[in-house]
Design a protein that fits this description.
Blueprint (H helix, E strand, L loop, with lengths): L1 H17 L14 H4 L9 H9 L12 E5 L5 E6 L11 H12 L20 H9 L5 H4 L11 H14 L21 H9 L19 H12 L8 H22 L13 H14 L5 H4 L2 E2 L3 E2 L20 E2 L1 H6 L30 H6 L18 E3 L5 E8 L2 E12 L10 E12 L2 E7 L1 E3 L6 E3 H6 L3
Parallel strand pairs: 2-3
Antiparallel strand pairs: 1-2, 4-5, 6-8, 7-8, 8-9, 9-10, 11-12
Helix pairs in contact: 3-9, 4-5, 4-9, 7-8, 7-9, 10-11
């Protein structure tokens, strides 16, 4: 635990100076090593899965247990949602694919009608299925009144849904001959398959077959969705992007301001009502500006209740603050290039973020909770080891890279850091990069995504970098 705290506090200081003040859920899936490590079975799909997870197009299975209690560095117990598993090897049901496709499209159309007798308003998938029906994406004549939502979707069905989505979003079609030996150009749904082939949304197997009745696994389904995303239009304006980022950061500022005054008096191993109330208020205020993964604290579930290295807080003699050691699985994979006394892990081989060695995996709230020596006076934006101020009306978009309902935004803002010296404040304009995604019809903050071009000190959009690998 000590090394976890030491690293995150060090990271927080670095981020405060670089204007990137909280972490992002780029790997909000417990088994992300299956696609980020070269020896993982789904390493071939790494860029697609990485983008889909960061944009929350695909979400993991419900964790068991769904929450854990953690004594969090000076602010008491916090209930943490457990990071789910992605399971890229699993097959995909029609309900699951409907949810993923609806998120890909950023749909917010409320159900007008639902023709399927086996899709009920109480079902978790009712809304995405209805949204796709209303967009004429799910072909009604294919199912004859019953979707069988829990049944595995076939490759033919996926191709038809994607081709219909292209039509619904007025993507110019590129009708092409069907090259598969096991699918006829005269089949009933051959026109949709032809459109999907022409748009390169689907591809066959090395033996020339399509295997239309075979089931795609979750990784294969994601790669097809990412191909669709690259063709979708983007409606994000500079004004909306700046507003979303400013509001997201402001919600984070208010959260930390709320509990900072109580940070040294938190009842150890008990829930601190100041922190709990601040977290609830943050979740309510940020839900329109921040993606779902980042609204809640997330933790890796492997937790050892006893730690032979239990330590006492020097400021509170007799009180043990370290309840146990956790994150051993994440420790093994995610940290790259951190070679110090506490941390000697080779880490993952995926892309690295600018300035601190790895992309952060713990989520916004988790990162904010794990800070120390915070101060608040109502103006502080990112309180960590001093005061960091931001002028909320100073946000300006420099440029954007977009891909459908995903956008990498390079922006600037006026800020200053007092370094514990209130009389020595120097205002300056700094820049940062954010990944925004469209969810339920609203653009939201998903992550900071600055990248350094390998071998250089030049910054770039992460989305630009990953586009070349898709």
């Amino acid at each position: 635990m000590k090394k976890i705290i030491s690293f995150v506090l060090t990271l927080a200081i670095v981020l405060a100076f670089s204007a990137n003040a909280f972490a992002a859920d780029f790997y909000a899936a417990q088994d992300f090593y299956k696609y980020t490590e070269p020896d993982g079975a789904y390493y071939w799909a790494m860029p697609d899965l990485e983008l889909a997870v960061s944009a929350e197009i695909i979400r993991g299975y419900p964790a068991n247990p769904p929450t854990i209690e953690r004594d969090d560095w000076k602010i008491g117990d916090i209930t943490y949602n457990v990071i789910p598993t992605l399971m890229p090897e699993n097959t995909v049901t029609r309900a699951e694919f409907a949810a993923m496709l609806a998120r890909t499209l950023g749909l917010d159309v409320k159900a007008i009608n639902n023709p399927f007798s086996d899709v009920k308003p109480s079902d978790w998938f009712y809304e995405p299925v209805s949204e796709l029906v209303n967009k004429n994406i799910i072909p009604l004549d294919y199912y004859n009144g019953k979707l069988n939502p829990d049944g595995n979707i076939t490759r033919e069905e996926i191709a038809i849904w994607l081709a219909n989505a292209a039509v619904a979003y007025q993507i110019p079609l590129k009708n092409a001959p069907i090259p598969f030996s096991d699918y006829s150009n005269t089949a009933k749904y051959a026109p949709a398959i032809s459109d999907a082939v022409g748009l390169k949304l689907i591809s066959g197997y090395p033996d020339g077959t399509f295997k239309p009745t075979a089931n795609a696994d979750r990784a294969e389904a994601v790669t097809m969705l990412i191909r669709l995303i690259r063709l979708l239009p983007c409606d994000l304006t500079n004004e909306e992007a700046a507003s979303v980022i400013a509001n997201a950061e402001d919600c984070c500022a208010k959260y930390t301001q709320a509990y900072v005054p109580d940070v040294y008096t938190a009842p150890y191993r008990k829930h601190n009502p100041v922190v709990d109330n601040a977290l609830k208020e943050y979740q309510q205020n940020a839900k329109d500006y921040v993606t779902q993964y980042n609204l809640y604290p997330w933790a890796e579930p492997t937790f050892y209740p006893e730690d032979t290295g239990l330590r006492q807080d020097p400021q509170c003699p007799g009180i043990i603050y370290d309840k146990g050691y956790f994150f051993p699985n994440l420790d093994k994979y995610i940290y790259k290039g951190l070679q110090n006394a506490d941390w000697k892990s080779p880490g993952h081989l995926g892309p690295t973020a600018d300035g601190y060695g790895n992309r952060s995996e713990y989520g916004i709230v988790d990162s904010m909770n794990r800070r120390n020596d915070n101060y608040s006076d109502g103006k502080i934006a990112y309180p960590t080891q001093g005061k960091f101020y931001v002028q909320k009306d100073s946000y300006k978009v420099i440029d954007m890279v977009t891909m459908g309902n995903i956008a990498s935004v390079h922006y600037s803002r006026a800020n200053c850091y007092d370094g514990f010296k209130v009389y020595d404040i120097e205002w300056k304009t700094t820049d940062a990069y954010a990944l925004l995604v469209k969810q339920d019809g609203k653009w939201k903050f998903a992550a900071y995504d600055t990248m350094k071009i390998p071998g250089t000190n030049q910054k770039t959009h992460w989305l630009s970098y990953i586009k070349d690998r898709l």
